[in-house]
Write a structure and sequence with these properties.
- The complex is a heterodimer of chains A (333) and B (326).
- Chain A is 71% helix and 0% strand.
- Chain A is mainly α and 333 residues long.
- Chain B has helices spanning 3-12, 14-58, 76-81, 86-121, 127-135, 142-153, 159-166, 179-207, 211-219, 224-235, 237-252, 256-260, 273-282, 295-325.
- Chain B has two domains: 3-58; 76-325, MetI-like fold.
- Chain B has 14 helices and no strands.
- The radius of gyration of chain B is 27 Å and the shape is flat.
- By secondary structure, chain B is mainly α.
- Classes of the chains: A mainly alpha (333), B mainly alpha (326).
- Chains A and B meet through helix 1, helix 7, helix 8, helix 9 and helix 10 of A and helix 2, helix 4, helix 5, helix 6 and helix 7 of B.
């Protein structure tokens, strides 16, 4: 007995250590998302104190360091014509007769929360909405189509049912990169869905091993008598589908949703290929800040953190569901 | 239908009955079709039709998606992949992809299998919390993992490098943009991200082993690692095969993490097969990449490189089905 409990203690220690290590990158990400890029070469294990905006700083320097858009600044301050980037803020206030506080109010957020401010100003919210729309629609419509397929396939009453089922399994072994170029041709040329969120949703709901497997195998466990009783009462298949089957689909839907949601939420390849920047979903948006502001680490890491946050919250709220689904998926294999 | 009615019917005519049955089976077929078709049409159109679209393009000189002047060139594309100037980049990309895939496959066991063993043996209330945390990185996007690597391992600004130099070692321990990082640190991070996923896969297999089997081995005096080798591993082969298929397909197609490492912004060390194909297809269009070849060559490369993998995965899939039935 003593030996068993020593082993258990050892396991707890090892697993705790692993879990702590797992959390370290998340913690550093949270710190770095609020660490000024200019302090990147120093080690920060806690969010550092910010310097206040100095009226002695030059507007040109603010543009380079904090991604202040000089033109937007000029418009906001109603300055006409060329603005010398060498001018200090105090000089601008004097020269153009602007209240120093007005300049301060405009620029302070750039200095204080540069990362968040930069990504929000560059389309984060739009990307967030696009991602929520794509993920939500993909999960819901994908599940509906999966249930429809499953309702017909369950039990494999005909030989061709098995053929359909197996052809969906093929999806598991085709890497997305292998078909992306011809897919692009089909979607842009034949469907005319260039730069449309619809194209992403279509690629997500096209069906595959997971949805077919989960729904077909679950529907197969629904007693046949239920279907027969509907038929006996003169009901059609859609009565059975709507009133009997759909209300029973809670469990397989949870499995389907919790496994596919991270995939849909984080789908970079299709977004990068099929969308243009004004329609980017979050992963592509994060990739584009990585590309355009290559030096503004604070903005990049804020982008990673903020695009992770929503799905992480969903995960932590429904953690039991996610874990049960992961195990269920594994057993089905 | 009342019994008296139906018996009357049987008596009346054998022919009507078969006719009715045929009509019913036709109705059933139509219903099946209506319910299967919506998803299947999309599936055929976006998953199988691409192969039909790709096949003729392989034998042409189509430069990009807008190219109007397309000529037949026979097998030139396949040949050109293995000739200058493309061959060097192809070999490099292939070499990196293969090394990465092998290391990445080891990580499936280093993380997934060992964690599954630990969780399998553990008796504790903390199990749920452990599982939640181990599975958590799975929520991270691939691009997020790549950028976290930049955050940790960049020269001079990487937090990990800064910690190492704080501890007294001088210089930079890692360079996020180097090939070593892409080949050996990236699989480590990928293993970390997929740890929960693979653990669930293996744990599912372990939990399916009949307890009597484990107990009788214990009775016979088999030590722990002997049990792992002779009981656990052979019993979870179906899980191992599934994990292998996932690992192969994901490793060869790895893309997002490499974009995070700057593969599309000029970091040649992160150019794996998927990036190579992407550059051939979309090169000039997005994010500063330069056009290195034609679209036709890109499609050729994607088919030539991935086809053997698909066959391998297909074979593994069949093997898995056979094993889980007996």
């Amino acid at each position: 007995m003593g030996k068993a409990s020593t082993k258990n203690t050892l396991l707890i220690v090892v697993l705790s250590a692993y879990c702590l290590l797992t959390l370290v990158p998340f913690y550093i990400l949270a710190v770095r998302a609020f660490t000024p890029t200019i302090q990147s070469t120093e080690l920060h294990l806690w969010i550092p104190e910010r310097r206040d905006l100095s009226m002695n700083s030059r507007i040109g320097d603010l543009s380079t360091i904090y991604n202040v858009d000089a033109r937007a600044f000029r418009n906001a301050m109603e300055i006409k014509g060329y603005l010398n980037p060498q001018l200090k803020l105090s000089q601008i206030a004097e020269q153009y007769g602007i209240e120093p506080d007005r300049i301060r109010d405009y620029l302070e957020p750039y200095v204080q929360y540069n990362g968040i401010y930069t990504i929000v100003n560059n389309g984060f919210v739009r990307s967030l909405i696009a991602t929520i729309v794509v993920t939500g629609a993909s999960v819901l419509v994908g599940a509906l189509l999966g249930i429809m397929t499953g309702s017909a396939l369950a039990g494999f009453r005909r030989r061709w049912h098995m053929f359909v089922y197996n052809s969906y399994l093929l999806n598991m072994i085709i890497p997305p990169m292998m078909v992306i170029l011809p897919q692009y041709i089909i979607i842009t040329r034949y469907l005319g869905l260039e730069n449309s969120l619809m194209s992403l949703i279509l690629l997500h709901i096209k069906g595959g091993a997971l949805s077919t497997m989960v729904f077909t195998s679950y529907i197969a466990t629904v007693p046949r008598e239920l279907k027969e009783s509907v038929a006996m009462d003169g009901g059609k298949h859609y009565h059975y589908f709507l009133y009997i089957l759909l209300p029973l689909m809670g469990t397989p839907f949870a499995v389907f949703a919790s496994i596919t949601m991270p995939w849909f939420w984080n789908d970079l390849l299709h977004a990068l290929v099929l969308l243009r920047p004004d329609n980017y979903t979050l992963p592509a948006f994060v990739a584009s800040i990585g590309g355009t502001f290559t030096t503004n680490f604070e903005a990049i890491f804020s982008g990673v953190l903020l695009s992770l946050a929503p799905i992480l919250v969903v995960y932590l709220v429904f953690q039991k569901l996610f874990i049960r689904s992961a195990m269920a998926g594994a057993v089905k294999g | 239908m009342k019994p008296s009615e139906s018996s009357a019917r049987v008596a009346s005519s054998e022919g009507t009955r078969t006719q009715a049955a045929r009509a019913r089976s036709r109705r059933e077929f139509l219903t099946d079709l209506i319910y299967i078709a919506p998803q299947y049409v999309i599936y055929i159109g976006l998953q199988l039709l691409p192969f039909a679209i790709a096949l003729p393009i392989i034998f042409t000189d189509q430069v990009d998606f807008l190219d109007q002047d397309v000529n037949w060139v026979g097998f030139d594309n396949i040949a050109s992949l293995f000739q200058a100037p493309l061959d060097d980049r192809l070999y490099q990309a292939l070499r990196r992809t293969v090394i990465f895939s092998v290391v990445n496959y080891l990580m499936v066991f280093l993380f997934g299998f060992l964690l599954a063993l630990a969780m399998f043996e553990l008796v504790s209330k903390l199990k749920g919390i452990f599982f939640t945390i181990i599975y958590m990185p799975w929520m991270l996007s691939g691009i997020g993992v790549g950028l976290i690597m930049v955050m940790l391992f960049s020269t001079d600004t990487g937090s990990f490098n800064l910690i190492v130099s704080e501890l007294g070692a001088d210089g930079n321990a890692f360079d996020a943009k180097s090939e070593t990082t892409a080949l050996f640190v990236l699989p480590f991070m990928y293993g970390w991200k997929a740890a929960g996923f693979n653990m669930a896969l293996f744990l599912g297999g372990l939990l399916a082993i009949p307890t009597e089997t484990i107990e009788s081995a214990r009775m016979d005096g088999a030590g722990y690692w002997k049990r792992v080798w002779y009981i656990y591993l052979p019993q979870i082969v179906p899980s191992i095969i599934i994990a292998t298929i996932f690992s192969i397909i994901n490793s060869f197609g790895i893309f997002d993490e490499l974009v995070g490492l700057g593969a599309l912004a000029g970091n040649q060390n992160a150019e794996f097969m998927s990036i190579f194909i992407y550059q051939l297809g979309f090169g000039s269009a997005t994010m500063g990449g330069a056009k290195i070849g034609t679209l036709a060559q890109g499609i050729t490369a994607s088919l030539v490189i991935f086809l053997p993998l698909v066959f391998l995965a297909f074979w593994l899939n069949r093997l898995q089905k056979k094993m889980s039935y007996h």
